[in-house]
Write a structure and sequence with these properties.
The chain has 248 residues and is an alpha/beta fold. The protein has one domain: Metallo-beta-lactamase, Chain A, CATH 3.60.15.10. Helix content is 21%, strand content 30%. The chain is built from 7 helices and 14 strands. The strands form 2 sheets. The protein has a 7-stranded mixed sheet with strand order 6-5-4-3-2-1-14. Strands 7-8-9-10-11-12-13 form a 7-stranded mixed sheet. The protein is globular and about 45 Å long. The two termini are 15 Å apart.
């Protein structure tokens, strides 16, 4: 069975009104026997129905509330699932913020991971790399690369493209990339019309945009495809088969 990525949300902080309406950005990376939840948003109660099952692990990109503010909501569902604490991988700084912000964390097995350290999660080798995003040093931000049934990079929050991110993306089947704005740059995020053509030159199979904000064009798919034929905007509930680089 092929692995898949399920987009639980594809919007900006607080959500992006529609149509299509978008909840805060999060995804599940699914392989037989393993579900990895990428970020836990404040909209988790609305997104949990899209999960194919309880998560076996969580990876956090950073500790902003739109990426980790749903941790108490996750706990309520965890109590119903009757599962052991969920291994949760993040930077030491993000874990520190989570510990200070939330009183009840018995549902998480918090595991700090350094930049470029590789950890094993089921059939995946997961490796984070620091990317520019927040100016506040309390919120270092990771892009995550997962290699195994496929090669996937999740970089939902990034202020500029870097050589280190391009190196992380090299040879991946799929890049999930920040697509927050169009026509003008907003703080801490990419601008699709300026940055997507650069990312399109990278050696990666497909690009799907998330973190989509209020000012993107109405016919976003057409606009994105003109910039990069291998790119598309993601949407809440989208399920993409990861074929390990095979092409039908």
């Amino acid at each position: 069975m092929d692995a898949t990525i399920v987009f639980l949300g594809t919007g900006a902080a607080g959500g992006t009104p529609g149509p299509p309406e978008r909840t805060e950005s999060s995804a599940a990376i699914v392989a037989p026997g393993t579900i990895i939840l990428v970020d836990v948003t404040t909209h988790f109660d609305r997104q949990v129905s899209r999960l194919p099952g309880p998560p076996d692990a969580v990876v956090l990109t950073h500790a902003h509330r739109d990426a980790s503010g749903g941790i108490p909501r996750l706990r309520r569902h965890w109590l119903a699932w009757r599962r052991p604490p969920i291994p949760t991988f993040a930077s030491a700084a993000a874990i520190d913020v989570v510990r200070r912000r939330h009183r009840r964390l018995d549902h998480l097995d918090l595991r700090p991971v350094d930049d470029d350290e590789t950890v094993t999660i089921g059939p995946w080798l997961a490796r984070p790399r620091t990317v520019p995003h927040a100016r506040d040093p309390r919120f270092p931000t990771y892009a995550w690369r997962l290699d195994g049934p496929s090669g996937v990079v999740y970089a939902s929050d990034i202020s500029r493209l870097t050589d280190r991110l391009e190196e992380l993306v090299e040879g991946a089947e799929l890049l999930v990339l920040d697509g927050a704005s169009w026509g003008h740059r907003i703080p801490n995020h990419l601008r699709i019309d300026a940055d997507l053509p650069v990312a399109c030159s990278w050696r990666v199979g497909r690009i799907l945009l998330t973190q989509l904000g209020r000012n993107v064009p109405g016919d976003l798919e057409t606009a994105v495809t003109r910039l990069c034929p291998r790119a598309r905007p993601a949407r809440d509930g989208l399920v993409v088969v990861l074929d390990g680089g095979r092409r039908q």
